[in-house]
Amino acid sequence: MIRIFAIFAFLICATTALAQSYPEYNSTTVNDYAGLLDDASEARLVAQLEELKKDTGIEMTVLTLSRQDMFAPDQTIEQFATGLFNEWGIGNKTSNDGVLVLVMHTDRIMRIELGGSYGRDWDRTTAKVIDRSFLPAFGEDRYQDGIEAGVTDTIEAIVTPFLAGEEAPSGGEGDNWIFAIVAAVFAGIGALIFKDKFVKLRKCPECGTRHLNRSRHIKNSATKTSTGNGDMITECSNCSYRSVVPYTISRVSSSKSSSSFGGGSSGGGGASGKW
Description:
Radius of gyration: 20 Å
Strand order of the largest sheet: 1-2-3-4-8
Strand content: 15-25%
Order of helices and strands: HEHEHEEHHHEEEE
């Protein structure tokens, strides 16, 4: 009987372990596994996050996935983001000030997960950043616009004041409208400047629905001395449409700042949003 119970317990644990896993990271800045960013947009984000790390020591990373059930179908997005954050060890181990921006395209849900040092007082500000900078663009399938604007807003509204020792905004309504107008103006200017560079996820050419998913299949990884190559695969989850387009992977920069995170952790702080 004891042996049967032990086997049963082992099977339960094994099943749970298989059901809850996390993707590996190839970069400490941007891992666009859902294929939402073109090369120019990804390069801008990488440069921005590398500069943030160099200037402040803050590790901030962007991860895009198609859907969560490929990794942890029985977890909430909050549980998944916290577990992934801690599995990767985002941020400095001592200061615990890392930031994760997680976007899941097919699930139409995202989360900003904050390191443990921010405290839960910053959750309200995080929710406002998501609502004003990420979700409006995501709702129109302008993922590059939303991610770039949202990352900038996260740095300016959360990371910068936190580093300056400021307390999280109390949530008073008096000045919110002013901040919202300023944010909207800058977002509009950014859209006018970069609108021709953004690639919008369009309707499926066969069935006409917005169920296109993009993924990248790497054939040959890039090195410091040679480029790599792979296929950009676009598929429709509503019909049989499938397109495969070859692409080139830029050579690995010799100035890459870090190949691994600093061992930071999160206590579950942050906010989520749906579109």
